[in-house]
Amino acid sequence: IMCASAKYNTRGPALIPRMKTKHRIYYITLFSIVLLGLIATGMFQFWPHSIESSSDWTVEKRSVHDVPVVKLPADSPIPERGDLSCRMHTCFDVYRCGFNPKSKIKVYIYSLKKYVDEYGTSVSNTISREYNELLTAISDSEFYTDDVNRACLFVPSIDVLNQNALRIKETAQALAQLSRWDRGTNHLLFNMLPGGPPDYNTALDVPRDRALLAGGGFSTWTYRQGYDVSIPVYSPLSGEVDLPERGPGPRRYFILSAQMALHPEYRSELEAIQAENGESVLILDKCTNLSDGIPAVRKRCHKNQVFDYPQVLQESTFCVVLRGARLGQAALSDVLQAGCVPVIVADSYILPFSEVLDWKRASVVIPEEKMPEMYSILQSVPQRQIEEMQRQARWFWEAYFQSMKAIALATLQIINDRIYPYAAISYEDWNDPPAVKWSSVSNPLFLPLIPPQSQGFTAIVLTYDRVESLFRVITEVSKVPSLSKLLVVWNNQNKNPPEDSLWPKIRVPLKVVRTAENKLSNRFFPYDEIETEAVLAIDDDIIMLTSDELQFGYEVWREFPDRLVGYPGRLHLWDHEMNKWKYESEWTNEVSMVLTGAAFYHKYFNYLYTYKMPGDIKNWVDAHMNCEDIAMNFLVANVTGKSVIKVTPRKKFKCPECTAIDGLSLDQTHMVERSECINKFASVFGTMPLKVVEHRADPVLYKDDFPEKLKSFPNIGSL
Amino acid sequence: MQTRKKYIFLTFLASWLLLFFFGGDRLRRFAFFSGRKAEAQRNWPHWTDRSLLNSFADPEELQSDGDPSLPSPRERRAARLSVYKNSRCRMETCFNFSRCEKHGFKVFTYPRERDQPLSESYSKILTSIERSRYYTPNPEEACLFILSIDTLDRDHLSSQYVRNVDEKIRGFPLWNGGRNHLIFNLYSGTWPNYTEDLGFDIGQAILAKASFYTESFRPGFDVSIPLFPKDHPQRGGERGWLYQDSIPPKKKYLLVFKGKRYLTGIGSSTRNALHHIHNGKDIVSLTTCKHGKDWEKHKDTRCDKDNVDYEKFDYQELLHNSTFCIVPRGRRLGSFRFLEALQAACIPVLLSDGWELPFAEAIDWGKAAVVGNERLLLQIPSAVRCIHPERVLAFQQQTQFLWDAYFSSVDKIVHTTLEIIKDRLLPHRSRSRFLWNTLPGGLLARPDFSTHPGDFPFYYLQHGSSPSKKFTAFIRAVSPSGSLSQPILRLIQAVSGSQYCAQILVLWSCEKPPPPSGKWPQTTVPLTIIQGRRKLSDRFFPYTAIQTDAVLSLDEDTSLSTSEVDFAFVVWRSFPERIVGFPTRSHFWDAEQRRWGYTSRWTNELSIVLTAAAFYHRYYHSLFTEYLPAGLRELVDGLAACEDILMNVLVAAVTKLPPIKVTQRKQHKETVPQQVGCKEGDAGTPPVGELSPSPLRSPPAKVKGTTGAAGGRRFSQRHDCLNQLADWFGYMPLVSSQLRLDPVLFKDQVSVLRKKYPRLEKL
Hints:
The complex is a heterodimer.
Chain A: H1 21-46, H2 48-59, E1 69-71, H3 88-91, E2 107-109, E3 114-116, H4 129-140, E4 153-155, H5 168-176, E5 188-191, E6 212-215, E7 229-230, H6 237-240, E8 253-257, H7 264-277, E9 281-283, E10 299-302, E11 305-308, E12 316-322, H8 330-337, E13 341-345, E14 364-365, H9 374-379, H10 383-401, H11 404-419, H12 427-431, H13 434-439, E15 457-463, H14 467-477, E16 483-490, E17 510-514, E18 534-539, H15 547-559, E19 565-566, E20 569-575, E21 580-584, E22 593-594, E23 598-602, H16 603-611, H17 617-624, H18 628-640, E24 645-646, H19 660-666, H20 668-685, E25 695-699
Parallel strand pairs in A: 1-3, 2-4, 5-6, 6-7, 8-9, 8-12, 12-13, 13-14, 15-16, 15-18, 16-17, 19-24
Antiparallel strand pairs in A: 10-11, 18-23, 19-23, 20-21, 20-22
Helix pairs in contact in A: 4-11, 8-10, 10-11, 18-20
Chain B: H1 2-34, H2 59-63, H3 73-83, H4 91-94, E1 107-109, H5 120-131, E2 144-146, H6 165-170, E3 181-185, E4 206-209, E5 223-224, E6 253-260, H7 268-271, E7 283-288, H8 295-298, H9 303-312, H10 315-320, E8 322-328, H11 336-343, E9 347-351, E10 370-371, H12 380-385, H13 389-407, H14 410-425, H15 433-437, H16 460-463, E11 471-477, H17 486-496, E12 501-508, E13 527-531, E14 550-555, H18 562-574, E15 580-581, E16 584-590, E17 595-599, E18 608-609, E19 613-617, H19 619-627, H20 630-638, H21 643-655, E20 660-662, H22 688-691, H23 709-729, E21 739-743
Helix pairs in contact in B: 5-14, 21-23
């Protein structure tokens, strides 16, 4: 089965027999040449169109006026009116879309034709600039297909963006004669200005049968939820005027209204608000006495004062967007562009892309009846929230309003999400501005769970050849009541592990895993043998931890299953002189890391370490044979946003017969290396995820004046 | 070796050339044939004159979209009211908002009539409303009305079908065409078509219905509710079945279904196809023909074999051990299966086209379920196989969150329905989708408190912010004498010495007026006196004076040092959603008396932090006062020492996590029972028995007889309190912890000079 997503590798680390590097490079090059050849041939064989088309159409220059003319007989069929009960499962032919590994719909665009009636009068303008941009964007996107037989969605090139610019009956006839029309099934029409005088319907009046409508200005009565797509009314000013983003914060005016041709009743209500609140409210209107040559759309006036539009929108915190004859207003786009929080007063209006966008984060919706209370309603919005709304408004414009391309792609993505819901874009991806995506953390283990104690933990001992010490560790760890399994990762390829009979006899299963390469990352591999959520990583020379200490560590982990729970803590510090991070192993009042020489953590982090470690950190660690613990600390802190938990007073790992770790720790070069690791990782992560805390976890009655024998964890060890 | 290499290289080269040759051949042939299709459109052309094209609308037309000939907005609104009624109802046309303005969102339930039998489920719904903080017995105050006629089962073949509903409703003077009414329904229509018809005219009433079909659903007006069984608990509710996040998040089966196969009638096309995806390995899809009386009449060739296979698997076993569960439509669109799968953390794969999913106005189902298409059943196995394990893990956790937040009890289902309607009344004061879909969920994130995620204790990480750097000390004073005692003076000094203290508030809960400002000690931070109303629940009132995120709650006789306060606050900033404090207590299940026990002995565990000295987020004041039903607060005001337990229970119910104990310099004595009216005499010395050690990890021995009279009474009151609270909540929310957070160098044998909090170690 072809899946777009990466497969979970549950096998052990690569067990390929080692080859000499020289040979490897040779074979890899050879293989890739053959692969390239295969791909190239495949391209020639199966996608002849794409190769041809590039030569066909980019070379040939054509004018819109040269397109074929189609004459529509007066009696050619007209589609049924739109069916209000249409939903994806009733009117949409989902079989056309099929299952595909990329979960992308295929969109076909009909070629451009000029439609004329019997008398040769054209039915509409051939195509508007905006519709051309929209179709170009679709054609350039990965949704596009030129194969009408493989298409799932059809977009007619008949431009219906503005209903007033077309002849309704004839346009409908033009639609009906499209080659795959079939009652409009799987056809998508884009319309921004629906309706016309006198009643201004809120959806396109062109009969369109089952076609989906991406419309600007839907009301809740014409919008077929889950079928139609509500889109913005594009404002051509977006392309003309460059309004640089303005930082959030207080602005000169609190409320601004800059729409022209408002209904007098609305205008008088706005003026009443202004009269009550004075200077902070600004109501603008069309300028009456502008000198020639200045476009009226770019100026607004209040009494004799002239303001530049849309620049003036940046001067206000809130900008009113009232309904006009239609519900959808191009002003909404201008307001968002200016980073002004829209105050939407248009009852029953379906906001653009409301299926996926959370407008509560970017706008204030006020019922028309409540307009007089606008000022007090807006005053009740907390300042911090206003700032976020300003940022959010600007983000919506940048992502979904600023060009016809943005509008087109968002529309197609929404339809795509309906057809492949299991591959849909998440709420966060639709709504969070890049700054929020960057600063926020979404913990993959977000559910507050305290795992049952009965499951216990799996101890993983990474060992090379210190068999004697290893056996002592195994014996010690096996005394911990909650140990459920012991896994020895035998990292020595040149030597076989001792025979079964020589291993200590312990009460829990003991498994030995042999690795293919002596790599530090083998200790963090999500071995299938790990059947518990809790993992205790322990070095083969850590014998000083008492059974109580380990058991307590496990209990603490249960209360904080999404954190690293370890014994000796370490700290990172900013070295002001050198202007870089520094590793600190002094006994400080703060910790930001724990050593993984003995630490509890969730098995999930093994998976993350092995498959999701950013950049080249994993290989770097393996190459340097150092800092795997720092890498793990970075990884966990980065993904959860939480600090480590240091348990018990333990400050260092000391073992009588070995000098490796502590001997090294004191070593200056070791410290320099560790500091380098921190700097390296911080640059790869692009941030310093480690969190500094001043606490450690002790048993409730630790050092309390209380009989030791009544304490759960009396023997908690020392420094 | 060399020759071998050369040989391999040559072979590769040859095969590559061969492939290219064939490919080239194919290419030539394509080029030949494609000449015929020259007319076909390839890419959208880059028109030479594209820059000359006209805009779709004149800029002036776009900017001034008005038409003076149009009716005035007011007229239009009035006209709308008469047009958009009944099946086209929306809040703005069928709901009278003005009813909700004066008294807020109040819900009235019609008095129950004696001769009117109520189904178990409907009486639970009514009880939920009557126990809620929105209930009003006065129809004048009501914003929303609930009928006492059981409308849950509208299948007229059912025994619970109530007849002549139309007639009865017309007799109600409050009915008013159904305006501002909310009607609950679980089953509509009957064999064979199971239409959406309720058998009476609901008029302009809001319909909260299970198995809602999108076409008849009035968006923004109706509410889709889940189908729940009649033994669904009133409150509390069972927890979900996910006890830990397994990695990889795979269970024994990938996808399961076990249920009826309809041979004919509505819904049969889906149910009849389900057996196709059964592979006997990781996909188990079992159907039975045995249902109804005359199934054998319609029996087909599969039935006998299917019926045998069907018995081989246990439904519960499948539910527990599958990653995904198919939730197909039945005769109606919704099924019990949906909630069962949700609780079991078995990710629902919905095959129920046109089903308006429960609470879809608030809940983002894309995060917890796979919305399949009935017509694409055969794609389901490959689709779910392709879902990345990380998403599966997130899905599983989300099912548990949603189950626990909105579905596990009738109370939650009813409250979610009400809150969704309430959110519509003031759109600018409603929850964003973020609040609904993030822990702890919409019911616990009150938009009346704030609509800004940064103001709540729960969202700092997702929001990328952190709690404020200062705290407000909130001291409850009950000094009987009306003057300032030594302890309170010392306490004010100690607290105001903290570098993190923003202000001190004193809640003066005495009959006598507080001493004049000159009598209060001079502090570097502002000190404000608030006159209390002498109720115990007062101390958790959301006073506007509390402006910092953190509140340090204190009793006047609490003894704390500045470094204790400093350290505790630093710890709280790491755990802003929990209570972080000093003296602790614990609860235990007393198997002998079959009730919950409370102990203040020194134990190895803790589950309660006394609010006599504790940090917590100010939002909990708001939850305590405005979220908890009035009845519960009255209960607390009636019992002498219950308010702090309630606060702990509340926070535990919200977070599902234990509180945090931090180092305290010396053991606090059990605080003197606080008297509301500052009466003297009742204040006893701390009962000796309460401080004596208790055996390890076993429930402490009964304290009867070892304590003084006052202590004993107080103690039994706290027992009662705990048990009554467990009853109110429907379960015991308290969670135990075995740890205490100390400074990193606490009591370590290192120089005192190195330690940041050396004073914590002095006795």
